[in-house]
Specification:
It is a single chain. This protein is α/β, with parallel strands linked by helices and about 400 residues long. It folds into two domains: about 325 residues, Alpha-Beta Barrel (TIM Barrel); about 60 residues, no CATH class. About 45% of the residues lie in helices and about 10% in strands. The chain has 15 helices and ten strands. The chain has an eight-stranded parallel sheet. The chain has a two-stranded antiparallel ribbon with strand order 5-7. Helix 5 packs parallel to helix 6, helix 9 packs parallel to helix 10 and helix 10 crosses helix 11. It is globular and about 75 Å long. The mean pLDDT is about 95.
Length: about 400
Amino acid sequence: MNNLVPRPEHQFTFGLWTVGSTGRDPFGAPTREPKSPAELVHLLADVGAYGVNFHDNDLIPIDATAAEAEAIKKDFRKALAETGLTVPMATTNLFYDPVFKDGAFTSNDPKVRAYAMQKTLRAIDLGVEFGAGVYVFWGGREGTESDSSKNPVEAIKRNREAMNFFCEYALDQGYNLRFALEAKPNEPRGDLYNPTTGHMLAFIETLDHPDMVGVNPEVAHEHMAGINFMHGVAQAWEAGKLFHIDLNDQYPGRYDQDFRFGSRDIKAAFYLVKFLEDVGYTGMRHFDAHAYRTEDDAGVKDFALGCMRTYLILKEKADQFNQDPEIQSLLDEINADDGSMTPYFGAYSSGKAKALKEAHFDRNAMGARGLQYERLDQLTIELLLGVR
């Protein structure tokens, strides 16, 4: 079906670390050979992706010499030119190297904090060099296992100081960048600071340049905490802060699984896709997931294509939902408004408050009304299962 073929206007992106995963996990060695960044660009082009994103060290190893870095960048730039892929987003790896074992911007060691800032400044330059318009911050080690070790208020202040510094740097350099903060409740630390999208939204409002900073919510991270992901995305959207989004899938309460998008909770994935399409989200649809460890190189392509096809299938289902006469008639009935309550809503006035206090409501009749949500949900299930 041609409408399930990824096209540039869909803005599907993957990180080098996603299709570049070698299948290694804490209990097992790699099951796939590593590929160069240039090779991964061609792999993504083969499956129809729009763009490729990277951590600084996905592209250039942390100990690379200047000559090695230039050679890698040359090959990467050539691959981008050959395929037409773009680099919409970049980020910094502040979690893998042992130097960050106690965090980066929140480390108790001031030398580590300064090094983390230096590394990030250089990584921001690298992202801008390849055209990134969004820069993501995921605090992978910004947390603790024991609250004896860190003062959480100091950690908040250190994070704020770093983000203010990077905003000023971007402005000073004339970079057209937006920063997006990514929340996660735990892993690899026992507890991470700012563990949910809601925490991040509150933190952003304390910054010197909150207009430059938004969020990058991730399906798996919110599901780890048992939270409805679409609700967090909606809050970010309503606040004008949905700068980027990470799509994958996850069983609640588990370690970070990063499953193929829609592979675990198709209903939650449907509501998410429907929301993004209904509100007209124009940002990247970034898949931050990994192929199963069981897969070879062909399986990695199956994984990447599967992420995109599932999104497009659910986009079709969302259109079908919006056009289904029975569903829409039921929604009209559920949301019926004869206008009689309109005088009580909107901005406050003393007259409105007086009228509202004096109004009569038939509480028993309102409480007895059936809302037909069971029927609506079943119709949605039947639509998703393909029998409507």
